[in-house]
Amino acid sequence: MAKAGLTLFDKIWNDHVVLEEEGAPPILYIDLHLTHEVTSPQAFQELRDRGLKVWNPKRNQATSDHCNPTRLGPDGTEHGSLIYADAQAKTQLLQQEKNCAEFGIDLYGLDHPARGVIHVFGPDMGLTQPGMTIVCGDSHTATHGAFGAIAFGIGTSEVGHVMATQCLLQRKPQTMRIQYVGTLPPGTDAKDLILYTIAKIGVGGGTGTAIEFSGEAVRKLSMEGRMTLCNMAIEAGARTGMVAPDETTFAYLKGKPFAPRGTAWDEAVAAWSKLKSDPDAVFDREVTIDLSEMGPMATYGTNPAMGIRIGRKIPANAEEAFPGARDDAAFRKALAYMGFRPGTRLGDYPIDQVFIGSCTNGRIEDLKAAAAVLAGRKIAESVRMIVVPGSGAVKRAAEASGLDRVFIEAGAEWREPGCSLCLSMNGDVVESGKLCVSTSNRNFEGRQGPGARTVLTSPATAAASAIRGFVTDPREFSGGAL
Amino acid sequence: MTGFKTLRSSVLFLPFDNIDTDQIIPARFLKTTAKSGFGEKAFHDWRYLPDGSLNPDFAMNREPGKSARILVTGDNFGCGSSREHAPWAIAQAGISVVIARSFADIFRSNSQKNGLLLIALDAEAHSALIKTIEADGSGILTVDLPAQRAEYGGLRLDFSIDAFYKMCLIEGIDDFGYLLKHADAIRAYEEKNGKL
Ligand code: SF4
């Protein structure tokens, strides 16, 4: 029997196995380790305690994103005196500066113009490239899979392992392919696509697998859209998500600071062009999702799978939400936390805040989509809206095309890059009981602050909702021309 | 890490189910950038009275538990948050082996990365051990890792363990040690593949 073809994941994985001993997990070589201030300090300490160096410093790159404030200090800098969220945030940021200096790792830290949310920063800089293995002490590392890379989140011990050896001991996950049939309906984008997908397959639908997203809808997505898609693969329980690289990928990367140049660029593109699953590749699991029924999506519960088309009724019970589901107590608890009644619509509830940003939707295309809805309009009096660019590069690009003015004139606040309201460990917080429409990736209880209630949507939907003061279908403002 | 073959120790006996990571190390102690200093905080809210003095009734504060290097506990030990601080705290408190009915998944994987030997006993063996310690807790427990056997007060208990984890413990290496043992292969891979 002829040997079956290989998946994209298999090809990259096989290329990175340094060795595999009988009975032990393979040693996997890691091309790029990205690190931020929160999950790294103990790993640096471990290296110190063991008298170890960083194995290959240039394959480790650092930025600050989780606990930095998104407002400048009184002296106009991020290092200004009164700006840290608390003493712990300050300690972590300052410790990161010391650690990176001591171990020879480049840090794009506070006040650096390129600083940003780590999963926006890496692609911005051209650090993220097809065919790579990429890790970071952060679960949304899957974002980088959009370039046709194997990218996954790791724990603090593993941060130490990869710094000390540029390798990890890893058991190989299974592979899963999600094939989309059809293209994105009007008024929807990659965020709606992934919310729709997770609502279909569930929060555990991808557990233990690396997902490859494919189909015409994915091919037509920009790199920003592909990153949004892969970013939330882990909200379906997957280890990672990925998209095969193509002309869109190469065009995005060309000229980025760390991208290859000259003949090296041509050679790289030739090699990257081969990175796709063979036609006869066998995946451990295959799922097909038809997009003809999709529309703008929003979540109504406390996990990302609890999503519906805007305008549809909130399900009455777990079985109605996920056929076959039995855990009705958890379903009721989620609705009770959100303060939503079964059978009502999301548009029945006034919202208090809107957050546009995060590694899911803090890129230039996301800001453009929101600004297109907001241009010439005002947000509702009752709504407080903040727009947080994902990185310094995104911020500058937005300002160069006047997007900051659109947001400010509409009544929103325009901030410095950071994770901000995605997880609220930086001074930005949604008050208890308040309802926030957010372009981030997690609507868990308390994620945006104790008692805060989160509705996840696309940037266009978030902007439309800010104008109306209720969760709103963005097509109301654009005639479906998005 | 030093190699682990056998260990003889008195027993710290906490025969409760579902001891979660907040009991092992309360969240308020995680606001630190260090990886040391957690031993003193292990089981903090049981170990210390509200005024900060040692709670004389807690098993860790008196013999045989005080000098024990083996913890015997109930079902689903280490459930709750994924904090790696939990195995750090236990190991830094001088514990090398935890024997339980079962362990929470993430706690298990975090412990494996930190050289802590976790032994999950089947229901029958676990209940026999609990009964024997309840009758007399002053004895010495012996763990023989190569033979995969524990003995206490005439009881002989066989246990199973992941072969790779066992090898790492016996050779005194963790993932760090295992990876560094292959440093030459890693460097050769980098040279061959233009990764330097
Ligand atoms: S934006 Fe949110 S999900 Fe992304 S890295 Fe920051 S905290 Fe994590």
Descriptive report:
The complex is a heterodimer of chains A (482) and B (196). Chain A is an alpha/beta fold. Chain A folds into three domains: 8-169, 2-Layer Sandwich (Aconitase, domain 3), CATH 3.30.499.10; 174-246 and 269-293, Aconitase, Domain 2 (3-Layer(aba) Sandwich); 298-475, Aconitase, domain 3, CATH 3.30.499.10. Chain A has 18 helices and 19 strands. In chain A, the strands form five sheets. Chain A has a five-stranded parallel sheet with strand order 5-4-3-6-7, sandwiched between helices. Chain A is globular and about 60 Å long. Chain A starts with 7 loop residues before the first helix and ends with a helix. The mean pLDDT of chain A is 94. Chain B has helices spanning 21-24, 44-47, 85-92, 105-112, 123-135, 163-171, 175-181, 183-192, and strands spanning 6-9, 11-14, 70-73, 97-100, 117-120, 141-144, 149-152, 155-158. By secondary structure, chain B is α/β, with parallel strands linked by helices. Chain B is built from eight helices and eight strands; from the N terminus they run E-E-H-H-E-H-E-H-E-H-E-E-E-H-H-H. The mean pLDDT of chain B is 93. In chain B, the strands form two sheets. Chain B has a four-stranded antiparallel sheet, with helices on one face. A four-stranded parallel sheet of chain B has the order 2-3-4-5, with helices on both faces. Chain B has one domain: Aconitase, domain 4 (Alpha-Beta Barrel). The radius of gyration of chain B is 18 Å and the shape is globular. Classes of the chains: A alpha/beta (482), B alpha/beta (196). At the A-B interface, helix 2, helix 3, helix 5 and strand 8 of A face helix 6, helix 7 and helix 8 of B. Iron/sulfur cluster is lined by residues 65-66, 117-119, 138, 140, 358-359, 419, 422-423, 440-441 of chain A.
